[in-house]
Structure formats: structure tokens, C-alpha cells
Amino acid sequence: MEIGMLWFDNDPKRDFVEKVQKAASYYQQKYQKEPNLCFVHPSMVAKSGCKTNSIVICPSFTIQQNHFWIGFANEDEISAYLTIEKAS
Predict the structure, then answer these.
(1) pLDDT score, position 18
(2) What is the tens place of the pLDDT at every residue in 45-73?
(3) CA-closest candidate to residue 23, choices 52, 47, 43
(4) Which has more confidence, 25 or 84?
(5) How many helices and strands (H and E) does the chain possess?
(6) Are 48 and 78 in contact (CB under 8 A)?
(7) How far does CA 16 lie from the centroid of its chain?
(8) How many angstroms separate the CA atoms of 62 and 44, rounded?
(9) Of 26, 86, 52, whose CA–CA distance to 38 is shortest?
(10) Degrees (nearest 5) of the Cα angle 35, 38, 9?
């Protein structure tokens, strides 16, 4: 990931997609670049490699619940993350 940002959101009134969108909006405002990759705890997402708008969601046990590690990665990096996840 080129530039990543850790975002916390435990608001029970917002669903998962809204949380990712809010994090993405802040990221874009702060770094002037649209994020395309977000790591979350596996309990927060149904399947690996799903997408929320243009953001690929990757589950990772290294991320705590209600945290979103969001940022920008090139397509090769995204493919590598998805390959590693599938092999696990």
C-alpha cells in the first residue's frame, strides 16, 4: 500500500458500507487520492476480495474489529494480497 490510514468506527447505527465510505471520504480529502484497498478484521466482512464501490476489501486478522486500514495500492499489490488471503 502506497499511503495507508487507520480509521476507527464503532458506531452501531452505521452499516459496514457506510463506515468504509466515511473512511474513504476522509482519506480522499486528506491525501487527495481515492483509496482502492481496505483491510478489515475477518468478522466484519462476508468474503475475501469483495468490493465496496471501487474499494477492494481484504480481511486480515492483524486488524482489530471496528478498524479500517484504508489506502491506495497498485493492481499488482491488490492481486498479491488477494492471492495470499486465498492461500491462508
Answers:
(1) 94
(2) 865 557 777 899 988 899 999 999 999 99
(3) 52
(4) 25
(5) 2, 5
(6) no
(7) 11
(8) 13
(9) 52
(10) 105
> Nine-digit cell at 35?
483509496
30: alpha, beta or left? (left if phi > 0; alpha if psi -120 to 50) = alpha
Degrees to nearest 5, angle at CA 44 with 82 and 1: 40
Cβ atoms of 70 and 38 within 8 Å: the answer is yes
Determine whether 82 is exposed, middle or buried from the number of CB atoms within 10 Å of its CB (0-12, 13-18, 19+).
Answer: middle
For the purposes of burial, counting CB atoms within 10 Å of the CB of 71, is it exposed (0-12), middle (13-18) or buried (19 or more)? Answer: buried
